[in-house]
Amino acid sequence: MSTDTHTESSTAAPEADMAAIAALTQKVVAAWAYNDAESFANVFVEDGTMILPGMYLKGRDAIHTYLVESFAGQYKGTQVTGRPLDLRLLSADSGILITQGGVLPAGHSEVPDEQSIRASWVVVRRDGEWRLAAYQNSHAQLKLPAPGGAASVR
Asked: Helices H, strands E: what count in the chain?
């Protein structure tokens, strides 16, 4: 007698969830391409957090405000790219996605090493939809400096 209770319907849900979580990266890429701060911020839950080097933003409104200013300033004319490196469900309604990518300066087709990042996306399902609860990125090519030292590229 088999004790395997794994059925096709039980595998379909996690596969669909994994695809929906991975699709969050494309929502971010598309929102950035159109400088659409509202669509970008709406990928987050209402009280979501975004941590970037030197910055901590809490709440969808703060993320939106930051992006409106950034799309008009330092990120004007840029694109963003990212690809999943790792993705796993932590529960039926939460997961973690690790990506690598970065901001593409105007006219570039690849992210310069000094702009390359790895990011952690903590995702949750709210009202049947996957959203970002927390996002944090750090340089992919810089090594953590020794205490009192400066960061260096690998």
From this structure: 3, 8
